[in-house]
Structure formats: structure tokens, C-alpha cells
Amino acid sequence: MTSPTRRVARWLPLAPATTLLILFLAGPVAYCVWLAFTDTQLTGQATASFVGLANFRRAFGDPDFLNAVVLTLVFTVVSSLLGQNSLGFALAALMRHASKAVRTATGTVVVAAWVVPEIVAGFLLYTFFNRRGTLNAVLELLHLPQQNWLFTLPILAVSFANVWRGTAFSMLVYSAALAEIPQDVTEAAEVDGARGLRRLWHITLPLLRRSIGTNLMLNTLQTLSVFGLIWAMTRGGPGNRSQTLPVFMYDQAFLKSLIGYGTAVALLLLVVGALFATVYVRLLREDV
Amino acid sequence: MRPTTPVRLIALTALAATSVVACGSGSGDDDPDTVKVAYQRSTDNKVRIMDTYLAMIKRRFEQENPGKKLRLLPVQASLEDYYAKIQQMMRSAKTAPDVVREDTFLINSDITSGYLRPLDDKLADWKDWDRFVPAAKASARGVDGKTYGVPDGTDTRALWFNKEIFAKAGLPTDWRPRTWNDVLDAARAVKRAVPGVVPLNVYTGKGAGEAATMQGFEMLLYGTGPDPLYVPASRKWVAGSKGFRDSLEFVRTVYAEKLGPEPSDALDPNISTHVATDWLPAGKLAIDLDGNWLGKYWIDSGAKPWPRWTAVMGRTAFPTQDGRDPGRVSLSGGWTWSIGAKSAKADLAWRAIAFLQTPDNATEWTVRDGQIAVRDDVAASARYRSSMPGIGFFTDLVKDSHWRPALPVYPRVSNAIQEAMESVTTGDADATKAARGYDERLRSIVGGAGVTTR
After folding, report:
1. B22 CA to chain A: closest CA distance, Å?
2. How far apart are CA B337 and CA A12, in angstroms?
3. Domain-terminating residue out of B400, B418, B444
4. What pLDDT shows up at residue B13?
């Protein structure tokens, strides 16, 4: 039985951290949740009032919100699940058998894209995909037809941008995981005649299941909250054809001045993230 | 003793928290002799008109008021982001500027939010106030009848056209369009005769922001009949009007017939900079529906010096839809200097505003920024009258110019207009469908009772 004094003494070293967490994490989160239930506006309003679930009801009846949900799912599936995750795995697997020089060169290039700040990456890719940008200059040189994806297929352009930027992370996770596969398992499989794709499917992937789950979870949550990249490239436009949930939220909260509604959307984005997380956690659990 | 433990923990945490907060407030900048002035800095690093003007004002102000200081707080952002930023600054006493430059487009919205301080007590003792034209005075007046800002200029809008391109297309260089169709026909003629040139620019969509609403849509809408957007007498917003659909149809025609810029360029947030510093000086654009201020980019000290602009660029008033009286349309807006409601230094802040508006400084600003004068002494000064070619033409337009409904919901209505414009520009909707979308948005913004159907 510890005395109360000792309990306090024990907690004392943690006091600064607890205080900071309450002040700067719990505080804003609680304030945010509160705002979502009010009709607070950035301008044009004398006093805000509590409106209950009105913001959430409004979101589900708002075609622009539903459009943003769909685009967010497309963006996440294309750029995170299919793009970053698969490409990262492919790079990691190929690099195991590559020469040291190739490995270093590829690693440097891929990681460099990841290290570049988001807004810089956004601007680089804006100039790359722009109608008068680098990509079209290259296409013209090769006598290929021109593209204008920032306008015609903006969600694809920003998805590519996110793949370009985020693949390094998956590659690093999978490189580490592949290195951890015991040599004897691989050798045993080889003796049993498992080669190429068969070995990948029956030996490598099952052994990597945990890493895949972790990587998918981190990737997805990161991708769900991508804002700067899309904002710099398209501002969610044209129309609302690349308006994912974070961009929609910003548009409502700061451009349309509806802070209350914007925060409600932010909370709903949290729900979408939680849904993905639940799926991945289950994936991890079945492994055990 | 157990139950006391959580209480102690909480007490301790609270103590620690207050000490942290105390640190925060101590470091705030509360020097009673310093006035904080917030304004927008252009995202184009070559455009520093306001910055150099305010640097001069700061120097003179500090010379004439020993011990007092102006602290300039430039907000380098696009217009939309500037609005959001100053609103966030004004929400908290710690970050609220003392003097803030407010767009009259937004001022009533910010007044309703309680961000600004009424200036009536200061204006009553200020003899220069009588110099301002009545419409400009009204632009900074709240719904409560009080005045919240001192306007530092206004603007008017018309068509700019490139006479060299017009000559190539066989169009008259003293062009005077009578109707919308005259404008479209001229653009079509340019498209036929001068390939590689954008015939006509009409700002559109959310990227251009308020420029799309004001330079683009309202220039059209106010030429379709009286009170086309808002009826002051009945205090109702107009929905379902033919004028609204016709205006959208004009925008749709411009982009569908490829008379305008590529839609992806038209929807770029930086389009107005591209137009002024690239397309027009480079002869890539024939007709531009734009503001009086373009000349300031092309003078020697401008962002894109272009000595030949006075010979190349012509100006003509934008016509009404079918030539009805008064035969021309212009919209006027402008900015004001205001005092933040949370400022503890209102007296000193007012001194700074009055200093910005001494006749000399007011003239200096009006001329430097290519503004249209709102004070009769500035308008009459020789320096103003000779400041910029065409200044007489644009000043004369003030007579027939319209002012936007100065109401708190206006920014949101404007946003709804931009969305309607954007959907006809991209081809996502035709004019009827886009107008219907606007009507729905309008009802959700002002409520069904605030709308009248035509």
C-alpha cells in the first residue's frame, strides 16, 4: 500500500508532461468537439449558439459532403492502398536483389521525395502536371498527346502526387520487414521447390502480415489527412472534383466561415479514419 | 486519505497550468505607444505598393509623433486567405491588430461579428470626413447605422482592349460596344482573325474569388435590370431571375465557345496576376473585363513596367445586356481603415488612421495604388488628375457605378455565385441548372423568408 504522499511524489516528474498534454492536446480537442455542436461562424455572426446535431444532419444531407467522402475513399484506395503500399513493397523486394549502387541510388531518390516538405512537393507536382508544365514538355518531346489532368482528372493527379511523395515510407517499412525473414525459412522453401510468385504468396506475405497491417494503418491515416498537397495543386477544384474531406472541411470552416460545420466534418473524418483502423486491427489480430 | 489524492492531483495540475498561462500573457506585445497595423501583402513578390507606402507613413508618423511607433503586420496571402487570417487575429485580444485594412466587401460581416469598433465619436470631430463622397461613406456603415471604417479609395470596372490586336482583327480601335452581343461578336472576330490570342477574359469561379463575382458576374447582372441581386426596399434577395440565368449564359458562352482562357487557367487562383503582369503586356489577351487599377502594374515603378501600354491599351465602358439605360455598367468597391474592437489603443489607432488620410497622404496613396478618389480634394488635385492615363474615364464611371449589397451574408452569397459560375465554366452544368443550384444555396444562407422569386 503506497501512501498518498508517495503517489503524488511519483506523479510529480510527469507533471509537466501531463500539464502540457491537457493544455495543448485535450484542451483543443475538447474545444473542437464543443464547436461541432454549435453554429459558430468566423464572421457575420454576433453570438454563437448550441445547435445539437444539426451540423451532422446537415452533412449527411449535403451532396458536397458525400462527394467529398467518395473522393476521400478514392484518394485513399488509389494513392495509399494501391499506390504507396504496393509500390513500396515492390521497390523493397526488388532492391534486395539489386546491386549496392542501384540500391543506394534508388533509395536516395525515393527518400528524397519523402523528405521534401509537403507544400514544396505540392508546388513541384503542380508545375509538373500543369498544362504548360514539365510533363507536357516531355510528352511533346516524345511526340505524345498532351495531358491536362489537373483540370480533367484532378483526383488522379493528386493521387499520383501522393504516391510520389509517400512511397518511401512503405519502402522503408518493407525493407526492414523483408530483412527480418529468417534465411532458413527461405532456404527450406526453396528446397521444397517453392520459387518466385509461389514463394512470395505462401512464405513471404504471410510472414509479413504484421508489417503489412501496420504499414497500411499508418499510410491510410496519413493519406486521409493530406491537405497541403491537394491545396497547393488544385485547391479542391475545378468545381469540387478533387475536394477530399480535409479540403472540404477547410473550405467550409475558413472560406465559407462556417467554423461549426467545418469542425463537425473534422469529427466525421475521424470516424472514417477509425473505420479503416478497425479493419486493419482485425487483420493484425487474425494473424495471432 | 485516499479520496483526497485525485483532488490534490487536479490542484497541482491546475497550479502548473496557471503558471504556464502566466508565462504566456507576460510575453505579449502590449506596448501602449505601439500601433499594430495589419494589411495584405501581395503574393507576387514584385508587387510592394502598399508595403512601400506604409513604410513611408511609418517613418513620417514616428517623426511627427515622437515616442509613438507603428508596427506593420503584413499578411502575405491571397485575398480569401487574408480575410480568414485577419478574422482569426481579431478573435483574440492577444493577436488583434489596432488598425486593420478591411475590404468593404467583408466589413459588414466583420461588424456583425463584433470585430470592429464604431468610429462615430472620432469622425464627429474630424473635419476631413466632409470631403468623402456619400456612397463611399455608406460603404463602411453597419446595419446599425454606425460607421466602422474610413475608405481610402474606390475602384470602377470596364473593358480593357488591345488596339493592336483589334487592328489585326479588323475591329475599330475606338470600340464602343452597345450590348453584350457586341462584346461577344468582337471576341469571335478576334478568335477568327488572330489565332493564339485569348479573345476575352471574364473572371470566373472560386479561384478568382471576389474578382469573379464583382469584375465578372455582377458587371453582367447589374446590366439586366434594376435591383437584380438584392431588393433594398423589401430587404429580400432575388432568386430565379432571368437576368441571373442570362448572366450565367454569357459566362457559359465565353468558355464553351473557347472565347475565354482555358478553363484550367481561368480557375487558377493566381489568374488576376497572370492577366495583369503577363497576358496583357505580352499581347496574349485581346479584351479584359477588369478594374481601373491595371495601369499601376505597367508604370515604371510597377510589377511589370510596360512603357507602350498607353498607346496599346484602349478602354471602354461595359454595356448593359441589350443597351438599356444608362447604357453602361460599373461596380465599385474599395477598402477602409478600421480599428479592431479588441484594441486597447483606440485613440492612438485613430491618430494613425487620421494620419493615413491627411490630404497629402491620401493623395499619395490614391496615386500610388491607382485608386479612384473618394475625397473631393484628392479628386480635384492636379497630381491625381494627371497621375494615370484614363483616370478621368474611370472617375467618370463612378456616376453609374453600383455598390454591392453591404450586408453580413454578402460574402457567402458571393461564394454561391462563384460556385454557379465555376460549374458553367467547367461545363458541369448549364445556366439553368447552375442558377437553380444558386437559388438553393441562397435559401440555405439567408432563409426562405429573405428570398423573393422573380
Report:
1. 13
2. 51
3. B400
4. 43
